[in-house]
Write a structure and sequence with these properties.
The protein is an alpha+beta fold. It has one helix and four strands. It is rod-shaped, with a radius of gyration of 21 Å.
């Protein structure tokens, strides 16, 4: 069974773990109301709809 001879340094551990956070990019869906991209299972930031109903009111830039 392969066992490491020495303990990996803090620097090497952190370099290995740092790349894992780069891989997690959120997948986006299109909103059925306004067709803007949004993160699934969240309120649409541009129109305020979630599951076909208005949850929050969003101020438009005037």
């Amino acid at each position: 069974m392969g066992v490491p001879k020495r303990k990996p340094s803090h620097s090497r551990q952190r370099m290995r773990r740092a790349y894992n956070s780069v891989m997690k990019v959120p997948q986006l869906s299109t909103c059925p109301q306004c067709a803007a991209p949004y993160v699934p299972h969240r309120v649409c930031p541009s129109c305020g709809f979630y599951k076909g109903r208005q949850v929050i009111t969003v101020k438009t830039a005037a």
